[in-house]
Every structure is written in C-alpha cells, then in structure tokens.
Amino acid sequence: MTAFKALIIKDLQANRKALMVPIWYLLAMYVIIGGSMIFAAISGHSNLAVNGIPLEMLSNDHLHKLVSFVMQLAMFFSFLGMIIVIAMSIISSTMLNQDIKHKCEIFHRSQPVSIWQITASRFVAAIGGPLVLALGIAIINMLLSNIVLTAATPMRVDWWMCLNGMLLSWLHFSVALMVLGSILFFFSSVFKENAFGLGVGGLALLQLVTFILNKAYGWKIPYIVNAIYRLIISGVYRIQTSLTDTFQLWMAKASSNGEPNFGLYKLPEHFLADMWGTLFHWDMLIKLGFCLVMFIIATCLYNRREVQF
Q1: Lowest mean pLDDT: which of 1-10, 52-61, 215-224, 300-309?
Q2: Is 223 buried (19+), middle (13-18) or exposed (0-12) by CB count in 10 A?
Q3: How far apart are CA 59 and CA 98, in angstroms?
Q4: Which helix (H) or strand (E) is 256 found in, with range?
Q5: What is residue 255's three-state secondary structure?
Q6: What Å distances lie between residue 45 and 40, 48, 152, CA to CA?
Q7: Cα separation of 298 and 190, whole Å?
Q8: How many CB atoms lie under 10 A from the CB of residue 93?
Q9: CA–CA gap between residue 38 and residue 45 (Å, rounded)
Q10: Which residue of 142, 144, 234, 282 has the smallest Cβ count within 10 Å?
Q11: What band does 49 get if pLDDT is binned at 50, 70 and 90?
Q12: 3-state class of 91 per DSSP?
C-alpha cells in the first residue's frame, strides 16, 4: 500500500503543470470579473439587481431556492467544466507514454511493483487528480459566487440548496469524466505518440466507415461515437430533463386563469430527491464497468508493449 501511495504521489507530481491549468484559468476569470466589478463601481453602475422580475416573485423564497440550486448545478456544465476537461484530457492521453518521453521506462518497469500497480496509479492520478481539483474549485467558486450574489443582487442565497447543486453537479461531471478519461487512457496504451489525436482520428474514421456501409448496404450498424457520447452525457441529460420537467410543472401549477401567479410558486417537497435520483441510475453500473474494462485492456496492452530504452 505504501508503494502504491508513493506511485500516485509521483504521478501527480509529474503532471502538476497540467493540473495547474484550471487554476490559472480560474484566477484569470476572477481577475476579469473583479476588474469589471471595480470598473462598474467607479463608473456608478455597480448595481447588479435583477431587473424585469416582479416583486411578488422576488418575495417568494422558493424562487431563491431554485436559483441557488441551478446556479451551482450549472457550474461544471459550462466554462469551469471545459477547463477541467482540457487538463484531464492532456494527462489521461499521455499517462502511459510519459516514461518514453522522459526516457525512463525501463527504470520504472524494473521497480519492485506489479504492472497493475503502475497502471492503477496512473489511472487514479490521471482521472482522480483533476476530479479532486475540480471539487476544490467548486467549493471556492460556490463561496465567492454566493458572496457576490448576496451583496450585489436582491437574491437570497440558500446555502443548503447551493451545496446540493454543487455536489450533484460535481458527481455527474465526475462520472462523465471517468468515462472520457478511461477512453483516453486506453488511447495512451495503443499509441505511443500523439495518442489523443490518433485516437480521435481513429474514432472519426470508424464513424465514417460505418456511415458508408450503412448507406451503401442499408445496414444498421451502431455508430460508436454516438454510443460513447450517449454514455458520457446520459447523466447530464437526465438531470437537465428532470429539472425542465419540474420547472414546467411548477409553472403550470402556479398560474391563475392562464396568467402566472408568482405567489403560488412552490418547489415540490421531493425536489431534491428527484434531482439526486438522476445520479443513482442503473446505467451507473454500465459506466463503472466500462471504465474497468478500459483500464484492464489498457494495462494488458501496456504490459505487452516493447520497452523503450
């Protein structure tokens, strides 16, 4: 266990530059937003009050609960998520080829640890490292965004709803990233150089061949890229659909004579249970199984590869 822990620390240290990428992007974003707020305050336009929303709606606590939840839920489904994906893609697609680049593969292969420990350490570092970083970023961003929201707008932050939205967003994002990361990790075991480009190019070629065969012979061969995309995005799509359905039902119930009556707006008592239900779904087992299969295949291929001196 001590040796495996040392391997993880080594792999994380070897990729610290890539892990720092989201932090630098986040700092740049905060500098831009902070500079804009300072400029607005100096010019006398610092009021970020929500315009166009009826006062009776602003007085409804359920609106503030929904906004608190949705704002944190959307965190990783936008800019923040993209910078984490970039960092994880860089690490995962190069993880099994870094020894070749640094000309130390034979040294690491000769260490008194099994090949499964080596690849498991790199798999955990490649996917777990960015996800732990993402959780830290999510907590910091939640604190800062809520402070700004409370100070500069009439919205009343519900911290419990914020916490649920942030954690649910991170968990859905983590599952999606595990699937994507395991595919890129597999690419790094197949291709010794430019694994990301060659892997994506190979999938695109396979997609094209499948399309030609289906069109030419009327076959119905499944498209692998479509299947991978559905596997990655299914959880995100499920919570988006559930949230949309809840909101539409809410709107329908909170209307009087065809006109919205904001005083009737009320979140369902089982709202949070429904949202968390989108995570604990049967396809979670398929995703975890897929990641395990990708790891096993990648390890076997890496073990059979010729050692580079």
Answers
A1: 52-61
A2: middle
A3: 57
A4: strand 255-256
A5: strand
A6: 5, 8, 11
A7: 8
A8: 25
A9: 10
A10: 282
A11: very low
A12: helix
